[in-house]
Design a protein that fits this description.
heterodimer; A: alpha/beta; FAD/NAD(P)-binding domain; 2 domains; five-stranded parallel beta sheet; elongated; B: alpha+beta; four-stranded mixed beta sheet; 3 helices; 4 strands; about 25% strand; globular
Chain lengths: ~325, ~80
């Protein structure tokens, strides 16, 4: 595809809370702003059932609604969201070159805000039954388990929140937690403990997902304390065991990553490559909270403005 | 005659919103089957796609062949509706 003649002020890679927050700030400042999103606009926020810890919503808010409101606000000031993917990023001179599904593009600055994606369990049966018994999105696939048994794997906020969501469909849910305690917030833990459909199993590793005739029938767990294998009969498994940063497109960009693959930045949220900034869950040191991502997006936008002002476009 | 497009969705599915938004941006019309409202049609999704997930998009071509796109997959959806 041909290269665009336009040199964009800023291209944001991702359109989750961090990027959309940044886009509100940059586009309000008349900084021409283009976002690329290959998944869901609003990011993981949009596939979360309910967000209870984002300020401004005393009764909580549906993730889908919050994500869409972020989008509407950014678009109100002129930000443009392209549904597509950025495959590579490379800065040459003062210009950042991006290879995208919409063609080759150029920008004076870039914000990396691609967030993270769910980690797999990597146990036998997981890949075989993925999408037809093994899932990562309760709000997408929970409806298939009306009056069924389910297993949820994970110990964080996502696992607790999504297990609670799935109770609207399933008759009972076994939650398998590898460690001896939850990593979720106290409010969610209390809700889980009080829910009659949910049963929590600590010190329980997930060893295998077993099926018959193309359908999941059980999860084999292992009690780490007793050393015993235990069968959990189920119709489906929802896995929320962690997040990994989305950075594949930064290979050869010069942007530095930490040992876990998160993007390293300075105090201005600028990466090792001047003009390429980073915010949100993909950033090294991020707290993986929506409110933090939104704050980082705003901070990054101010740094981008400062960067662009120091490098005025020659007329 | 244009292609007939059917999307299987649920009330809470963000990826379904993205598929609809993409089809809207391309000026395509489509039928929505909401599985929260029509749970009896879940078996149809499994039969057509082999998957227990939404969105599932069925594209019926002019020659009556049918294409199935599972999830929000632009690299498959875009050529299927072109």
């Amino acid at each position: 595809m041909a290269e665009e003649s336009t040199i964009h002020d800023v291209i944001m890679i991702g359109a989750g809370p961090a990027a959309l927050s940044a886009a509100v700030y940059t586009s309000r400042e008349d900084i021409e702003t283009l976002l690329f999103e290959k998944g869901v606009v609003g990011g993981l926020t949009s596939i979360t059932d309910k967000v209870d810890n984002y300020p401004g919503f005393p009764e909580g808010v549906e993730g889908l609604t919050l994500g869409d409101n972020f989008r509407l606000q950014a678009e109100r000031f002129g930000a443009v969201i392209e549904l597509g993917e950025v495959m590579s990023v490379k800065k040459v001179g003062d210009i950042v070159y991006l290879e995208t599904t919409s063609g080759d593009m150029r920008a004076r600055s870039v914000l990396v805000a691609t967030g993270s994606s769910y980690v797999k369990l990597n146990v036998p049966g997981e890949s075989e039954y993925y999408g037809r018994g093994v899932h990562n999105c309760a709000t997408c696939d929970g409806a298939f388990y009306r009056d069924k048994h389910l297993v949820v794997v994970g110990s964080g906020n996502s696992a607790a929140q999504e297990a609670l969501f799935l109770t609207r469909y399933a008759t009972n849910i076994d939650i398998l937690i590898r460690g001896e305690a939850w990593k979720a917030s106290e409010v969610l833990i209390r809700e889980v403990n009080e829910h009659p459909k949910l049963k929590v199993h600590f010190n329980m590793t997930t060893e295998e997902i077993v099926g018959v005739d193309g359908k999941v029938t059980k999860v084999v767990g292992k009690d780490k304390v007793k050393g015993e294998f235990i069968d959990f009969p189920t119709d489906g498994v929802f896995v929320f065991v962690g997040l990994k940063p989305v950075t594949y497109f930064l290979k050869d960009s010069g942007v530095e990553l930490d040992e876990q693959g998160f993007v390293k930045t300075d105090i201005k949220l600028q990466t090792a490559v001047p003009g390429i900034f980073c915010a949100g869950d993909v950033r090294s040191g991020a707290t993986l909270q929506i409110a933090s991502a939104v704050g980082e997006g705003a901070s990054a936008a101010l740094s981008i403005r400062e960067y662009l002002e120091a490098r005025p476009v020659e007329q | 005659m244009g292609k007939k497009i059917t999307i299987f969705t649920t009330n809470t599915c963000a990826y379904c919103v993205m598929v609809k938004r993409f089809l809207d941006s391309k000026g395509k019309t489509y039928e929505v089957v909401n599985l929260d409202d029509n749970p009896e049609r879940q078996a149809e999704v499994l039969a057509k796609s082999g998957a227990l997930t939404v969105p599932v998009t069925l594209i019926q071509h002019d020659d009556d062949t049918e294409e199935v796109v599972i999830g929000y997959n632009l690299s498959r959806l875009a050529p299927a509706i072109a």
